[in-house]
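Note to self: keep these together.
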Amino acid sequence: MTRPVDPHRSTRGFTLVEMVVAMAVFSITAGGIWGLLATQAQSSRLTNNFLQVQQNARYAMERFEEEGQWASGVSTASGGATPSVTFSIPANNPVSPGTAYTVQYALTGSSTITRAVNGGTASDVAANVTAFTLTYYDNAVPANTLAVANAGNAYRVTVSITATLGAQTRTFTSDVFFRNK
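Structure:
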């Protein structure tokens, strides 16, 4: 004689223990994915912020190079914690054709490089700058380093801009030779 089949036995559901184990596995997996996404988002924000700082430092360097190469020389310069340099730009320049002017680049106490034309209002060209180093050279071969007080005799300037955000630091360095000297 065969035993009758219980119709409810073949449609059996999950036990409470199985459901608790499944929920625990799902929670651990979801928590891990959430933590990974949160870390990735923070890393992306930090990278984007530092890229912007680098872009500003490069922009300041490009402006400095562009105007510096057309300069007839250094008008004034200062060193120390807030270095600055003022270039005399003659009228025969492609930056502002037909107009002679002076332009000053300076590091402020608030870690910003500013640019002022003809002694006017200074505008910010780069922020988060921790160092703005200017080295002046004469036209001897090999070139001699000049003191800041003798910067007016320079034929070349080496500029170095260091940008820092958090623990990340980048330094950009370039030589500027005066074409009109």
